[in-house]
Design brief:
This protein is of the alpha/beta class and 346 residues long. It has helices spanning 15-33, 46-52, 58-67, 86-93, 149-165, 183-198, 209-218, 230-243, 281-297, 301-319, 334-345, and strands spanning 2-9, 35-41, 69-72, 98-104, 117-123, 133-137, 140-143, 170-175, 203-208, 225-228, 253-255, 260-262. It has a ten-stranded mixed beta sheet with strand order 2-1-3-12-11-4-5-10-8-9, sandwiched between helices. It has a two-stranded antiparallel sheet with strand order 6-7. The protein binds nicotinamide-adenine-dinucleotide. Residues 14, 18, 74-77, 87, 247-248, 263, 266-272, 278-279, 282, 327 line the site of nicotinamide-adenine-dinucleotide (NAD).
Length: 346
Amino acid sequence: MAKHTIVLIPGDGIGPEVTAAARRVIDAAGAAAGVSFEWVTMPAGEAAIKTDGDTLPEKTLEAITQYKVGLKGPVGTPIGKGFRSVNVTLRKKLELYAAVRPVRSMPNVKTRYDNVDIVIFRENTEGLYTGIENEIAPGVVTSLKVATEKACDRIARAAFRYANRRNRKKVTVFHKANIMKLTDGLFLRCAKQVWEEEYPNIQYEELIIDNGCMQLVKDPTRFDVLLMENLYGDLVSDLCAGLVGGLGVVPGANIGDHAAVFEAVHGTAPDIAGKGWANPLACVMSGVMMLNHMADFLRDDACKTAADRIKNAYNTVLSEGIAVTRDLGGTAGTEEFTEALIKRVK
Ligand code: NAD
């Protein structure tokens, strides 16, 4: 039986609860599919300050570089205390340039919309998240928005490649190039060029982001793949999560050419941390994305089988209302939901 190594970063708040749940589900699915996993647990976030004196210890970066794949819980960054943001640093240092967030209507999760099936591609390494801020005069501060041709081109390429491989019909770029003519202008130019030169088979659309957001809440089913720069992608991801039942059901991946880290879109949820109420589904779904990614780059079909088993399991648990967590209107806790999944992946 093949054995693959995964770096596990429990993180803060509900992170240790949801990553532990996902690990158990993935192990059970792997055992049923004929593949096993070795988990290398590494610190990050506020928890790591206590153990290693840094929010993102070098050994954590080294482990992800070595093993190439990680499953991460959310982390908190102490605000205004001089610690670097773990997520921003991780994505920049490992060049995890594509944040991929599939947002889909889930069985039996009642929302205002049906049949939502959107995949967001967010540029993950620059824009306003470069953290270059200056006080240029007392009472006057600036934040620098950076766009490079290299980063705009590679995220556009990633979105179109994905759309093409998955038989998606359309890529829509959200932008504000009417105001930010140079930075968003470059983003648009790169996207359009990749489309024209390499993927004319896919429909291409450009929308000014304010209009795009209005269209999203009016009729999200008109969208397919969304492509945008860093800050817009951050905001639109949460907006889209709201269309399908909230942060508990939206997974995510941060993908680069040499490594990939998978994590739910939600944060540390300090209001429910330690209560056993957290919905681990988004983390489990991120694990499914991770297994599919491993199936591709390790060429191991058993990882794909394990991913399919988990997907079928959560679809069954949700459709039959077997264990519904509080965020989705039920009463089940993390443990009950996890057990329900494990029973069905075997
Ligand atoms: P949040 O996502 O932590 O919580 C927003 C709301 O959604 C809360 O009411 C929370 O209880 C609920 N929620 C989130 N995930 C849930 C789950 N799995 N199950 C049930 N309910 C869930 O957002 P926030 O409150 O804005 O942020 C809290 C902290 O998380 C901040 O320190 C922020 O910086 C951090 N954060 C980290 C990441 C990350 O590491 N990837 C992402 C976002 C926020």
